[in-house]
Structure prediction request, 192 residues.
Amino acid sequence: MNKTPYLIAAALLAVTAGAAMAQDNAAPAAQGKPRVSLDANKDGVIDRQEAAARPRLAERFDELDRNKDGKLQRDELPRMKHHGRHGGRGGHGGLGFAGPNADTDKDGRISKAEALAAATAHFERMDVNKDGFIDKADREAMAKQHREAWFKRVDTDGDGKLSQAELDAAKAKRGERGGHRGHDAAAPAAKK
Prediction:
């Protein structure tokens, strides 16, 4: 019996199978690292659990959730901007991360000392309980301070309650400013 045709067929099968496997393994490498979607469950919104994958987003979750439904819709997500290779945010007169007030000597440049002073001042503002760390307790305390300050501003008669007129005035004022941060959406019930 002639075994040559069987050996040729086996060799061809091995070569084609090997080539197919090599193509399958090369495809993911060629595509690069896949971009991970924040919307893990593909429901069209980002909930707190999904936002936890990005700590900076999780920290700002309550601020970004303008309608206070516990989910971030597409229009509530921050716009990602890329400014050159450094990824700077801009908006600080070209002075970088430290902000416009860091240039204390007003020479148009921020020295290392000015940057450190600005960073230290920012840290001190964020460390509400002054324990030397910025953590969840500080973020909650800061949010509480912001809510109380908002309430005090809106409670124009100072009676500790918000009337419908006070809420309407706050809403109108917010409309003039362009709806900053959505505090009015979480306003307490008006007094009757």
Notes: Confidence is low (pLDDT under 50) at residues 24-35, 80-96, 180-192.
